[in-house]
Design brief:
This protein starts with a strand and ends with a helix. A hairpin with a 6-residue loop joins strand 9 and strand 10. Helices cover about 20% and strands about 30% of the residues. Strands 1, 2, 6, 24, 25 and 26 form a 6-stranded mixed β-sheet that branches. Strands 30, 33, 34, 35 and 37 form a 5-stranded antiparallel β-sheet that branches. Strands 3-4-5-7 form a 4-stranded antiparallel β-sheet, with no helix packed on it. With about 750 residues, it is of the alpha+beta class.
């Protein structure tokens, strides 16, 4: 076992947080005087990959995917062998090493000799180090499926087995989303909309209505031995809860509110009624005080929480987490330590409004590779409450204005250009130019130039898309920009009853057009609003119904010439560049949205990050950011879901999109077409084929023409939305709405120059 002492500044518990779990109290601080130091060990099991894990009184149990050959017969009587999927059970200790397979667990036996597949739905700890499993077996020969519960002791010997299908009560077992047993060996089954409770002899004790329960990993065991069901909030943005079950009375017990952005929930122990995750934090609930206590940052202890399979409390305040890896599983034992005993080191804070799984993995990888300098996450989504889902971004803005500036920023949802102009962000152009593996010519320069403000680039990003609008060339012309007057003329030339974008209500049309045309409505440098452009936008939106009419197949409308445009987000060369020409009968123009004085299309930057001017170690920060610019597919097939900023990756994408289609053996497909895709809710067929040179040239012309980056200003959007909304429903005249927008938006622009 290898032990690494970590520098955990965010894990220093400055104060215990008060208030009920999820009630809006500040839950971002940690418990006073405690940090956790992890020890990692690898668990080696002979399985393709690990499915589930649990820890039972120090024994670590894993279920893993295995397969075996099954003999089958085709329709002509010819026999052949095919692999079928099953599971195996493994047992070991927290020190890792080679895990022993439990011979008494033979998952393929549940198929009764038929071919099919077997999977474990869940595993959970029992008494004295034992483990419980629930297994589902699905034969392919028409035999009925089966669901089975088993218990094994620490030697892997089967103690208990029974079939869920034979339990009384005629239960709907098609959807089993949670199973657990308590200390009395009572069995709790969460089904689609109910919980059924059985005693140890499988006698039905009670059923409870659970229509609002979550539909995955719904059951946990509280530290005091009660089973509890996780329920969802009554509406989006509302906190869920854990509801204890009273099997003796057949009713619900106490309810414990969870954080609004709660992730996983785990059974309790070690003085905590239960554990739960929110953002990058792990919390424990103190029953005696009713407090939700922040225990640690997952990335701060080098654990990718997205891969955690189980969490359990050990003796002496320790915790153990089991996480899946590409080669098996990793066991982390987290031991409380005195913060004064930890050596000093550089710590970079990474501020985010929602930590993405890929960034989480990259931060853990960075920390493991650079013990002298660590990145610690500050996930401001933890401040959000059911009553205020914007509390996190408000807190971040407030702290930055007060001088509490992080070292790195996740740029998603943040006004990055504004931050840059205020002097908060580092210009990355010098770093790119001085990097031996980069330089501007290693990147898609047109996008970099558009993303710059006054020649400075404030964020790194791995990919981009192009937001535009596509139209039929004979209706919109062979152009990539037009004015509101051009747009209105083209629409007026269509047959009566035609639409610009299909069936939309007035507010829906505004929401589509406003972000794409906003920069054409204002002059930010002069702090002015273009009155005529605002009037044209509102007047056009006012021509469609207040409520949308029954929608027609949008592709039928474009093919018949009754719909002028299709909103488009181009992200790959091998799909959209074929789809939109097909939608307009064989050719299209990427004319974009009306914009006076510029191209009506924009680059949308994907998954960016920035370095602040206050960063404590800019060299280390750049070593983290630079990976966003580097090629991700130096060889093989490009599998990205957006255009790469790396020129080498883009050229690989282009080569594959315009080259011959290849079969599974790498040989060219005869005719160059592999089939067709039928669009959802439409009869439009789109052929799967390479791009023609003309189509690729058209895309590159659009790419070279785009000169702006999509960056909606939500505050400005709200002003226009509010006044336009009153006009749409007849509360204000067009001129009143325009006048108020010009006044309010002009004041906003002057205040933010």
């Amino acid at each position: 076992m290898k032990k690494r002492i970590l520098i955990l500044s965010l894990l220093l518990c400055l104060t215990a947080c008060g208030g009920q779990a999820g009630d809006g109290a500040d839950t971002t601080e940690t418990l006073s005087g405690k940090v956790y130091v992890p020890e990692f060990a690898s668990a080696e099991a002979e399985a393709g990959y690990i499915l589930q894990a649990c820890v039972s009184e120090g024994t670590v149990w894993l279920t893993g995917a295995v397969s075996q050959e099954a003999e089958m017969e085709d329709g002509n009587g010819t026999k052949f062998f095919t692999p079928i999927s099953g599971t195996a059970l493994f047992q070991g200790g927290s020190s890792g090493g080679s895990f022993r397979q439990a011979e008494d667990y033979r998952s393929f036996d549940f198929l009764n000799g038929a071919a099919g597949y077997v999977s474990t739905l869940d595993c959970w700890p029992g008494r004295e180090g034992s483990v419980w499993l629930v297994t589902s077996a699905v034969p392919w020969d028409g035999q009925p499926s089966g669901n089975y519960v088993q218990q094994f002791d620490t030697n892997g010997t089967e103690l208990t087995r029974f079939s869920l299908d034979e339990l009384p009560g005629n239960l709907p077992l098609d959807w089993i989303s949670g199973v657990i047993t308590d200390e009395e060996d009572r069995l709790y089954l969460h089904l689609e909309d109910s919980v059924a409770v059985f005693d140890r002899e499988q006698k039905l004790l009670c059923t409870l209505d659970a229509a609002n329960a979550v539909q995955r990993d719904a059951m946990v065991l509280l530290e005091d031995g009660r089973a509890a069901l996780r329920t969802a909030g009554s509406s989006p943005g509302e906190a869920g809860a854990l509801r204890a079950i009273r099997p003796e009375s057949g009713g619900w017990g106490e309810s414990y509110t969870l954080p609004v952005r709660c992730g996983e929930v785990w059974s309790g122990g070690g003085g905590y009624l239960f554990f739960c995750g929110s953002g990058d934090a792990l919390y424990g609930y103190r029953a005696e005080t009713g407090e939700l206590v922040r225990l640690l940052s997952w990335t701060g202890v080098d654990i990718n929480s997205g891969r955690v399979l189980c969490l359990s409390a050990l003796e002496e305040g320790r915790l153990v987490a089991v996480a899946s890896t590409d080669s098996g599983a990793e066991i982390a034992v987290l031991t409380p330590a005195d913060p004064d005993s930890l050596p000093e080191g550089a710590v970079l804070t990474y501020a985010t409004l929602d930590l993405r799984s890929d960034v989480r993995a990259e931060i853990v990888e960075f920390n493991k590779a650079r013990p002298a300098c660590r990145i610690e996450v500050r996930d401001y989504s933890e401040y959000n409450t059911a009553g205020d889902m914007s509390a996190g971004i408000t807190r971040l803005h407030t702290e930055m204005l007060a001088g509490n500036i992080p070292d790195l920023l996740d740029t998603s949802g943040l006004p990055i250009l504004e931050y840059g102009q205020r002097g908060y962000l580092e210009d990355l152009i010098p770093y790119i130019e001085n990097d031996p593996d980069l330089g501007r010519d290693a990147l898609m320069e047109r996008v970099v130039d558009a993303a710059c403000r006054d020649g400075k680039l404030y964020q790194a990003f791995p990919s981009f898309t192009i937001l535009t609008a596509a139209g039929r060339p004979d209706l919109v012309g062979e152009r990539m920009s037009w004015t509101w007057e051009d747009f209105q003329d083209a629409l007026a030339a269509l047959p009566e009853g035609s639409t610009a974008f299909g069936s939309m209500a007035r507010d829906e049309l505004l929401e589509l057009l406003l972000p794409m045309t906003l920069d054409g409505l204002v002059d930010r440098e002069a702090g002015a609003v273009h009155e005529d452009a605002v009037r044209a936008l509102l007047e056009f939106c006012g021509t469609v119904p207040v409520q949308a009419e029954d929608p027609e197949d949008i592709y039928a409308g474009t093919l018949a010439g009754r719909q002028l445009l299709l909103p488009a987000e181009l992200a790959t060369l091998d799909w959209e560049a074929v789809l939109y020409p097909a939608a307009f009968g064989g050719a299209c123009s990427y004319v974009g949205y009306p914009r006076d004085g510029g191209v009506g299309s924009s680059f949308r930057l994907q998954d960016g990050a920035a370095m602040t001017t206050a960063c404590k170690d800019k060299e280390a920060a750049w070593s983290f950011l630079r990976k966003l610019f580097l090629p991700r597919y130096p060889t093989g097939t490009y599998f990205g879901t957006a255009f790469p900023i790396s020129r080498a990756d883009f050229e690989r994408m282009a080569e594959q999109a315009t080259g011959p289609l290849l079969d599974e053996l790498g040989q060219p497909v005869e005719g160059g077409v592999t089939g067709w895709v039928i669009m959802p809710d439409s009869s439009l067929e789109v052929s799967v084929r390479p791009l023609t040179q003309e189509e690729f040239d058209q895309f590159m012309a659009l790419y070279q023409a785009v000169d702006q980056v999509y960056g909606p200003d939500e505050d400005l959007t709200v002003i226009i939305r509010e006044e336009a909304g009153a006009y749409f429903v007849g509360g204000k005249s067009l001129e009143e709405a325009v006048r108020l927008i010009v006044s309010r938006a002009g004041l906003y622009l002057s205040e933010n120059q």
